[in-house]
Write a structure and sequence with these properties.
A 6-stranded antiparallel beta sheet has the order 1-8-12-11-9-10, with no helix packed on it. It has a 3-stranded antiparallel beta sheet with strand order 2-7-6, with no helix packed on it. The chain has a 3-stranded mixed beta sheet with strand order 3-5-4, with no helix packed on it. The protein has a domain of about 55 residues. The mean pLDDT is about 90. With about 150 residues, it is an all-beta fold. The chain is globular and about 35 Å long. Helices cover about 0% and strands about 30% of the residues. It contains no helices and 12 strands.
Length: about 150
């Protein structure tokens, strides 16, 4: 089975400057420098910064980061590995619940660490695949940064 990763194409600028202020999964759009949170402004302009998996520790995007934590979340206080992506780079990002995404749709922040179809905000990415219908659970799709 192929290993899944958040970085699909390109080389983002990495940082580990901040600690999680809430539970964050690899693939969430994030904000902050010393305290890392899911991006919270729907449609808002933001650097295209995504939480990454701890591949240097042999962890994939769905592997447990903390013993007994039970998920791939960064727990409050964990140092978050963040990748800041530029135009043309590709990411495996989360899309918002209730979204029905088709390939080539423009996407913006949904205000909860996920992306949604463009309403009237800042275009951050375009979908490279379909969501396969309205999403009801937290789902990742391939996107290209705009």
């Amino acid at each position: 089975m192929a290993r899944r990763t958040i970085i699909l194409l390109g080389q983002p600028v990495y940082n580990e400057d901040g600690a999680a202020g809430e539970a964050i999964k690899p693939g969430h759009l994030v904000q902050g420098v010393t305290t890392i949170l899911k991006h919270a402004t729907a449609g808002g302009k933001t650097p295209t910064a995504f939480a990454l998996e701890r591949d240097e520790l042999g962890r994939g995007i769905d592997d447990t980061l903390n013993v007994g934590h039970g998920s791939a979340d960064y727990a409050i206080g964990d140092t978050v590995k963040v990748g800041v992506f530029t135009k043309g780079q590709r990411v495996l990002a989360f899309i918002a619940s209730g979204q029905n995404i088709t390939a080539d749709m423009q996407l913006e922040s949904a205000g909860n660490g996920t992306l949604r179809t463009l309403a009237a905000g800042q275009v951050l990415a375009r979908a490279l695949e379909s969501s396969g219908g309205a999403v009801v659970t937290l789902t990742r799709i391939r996107v290209e940064i705009m």
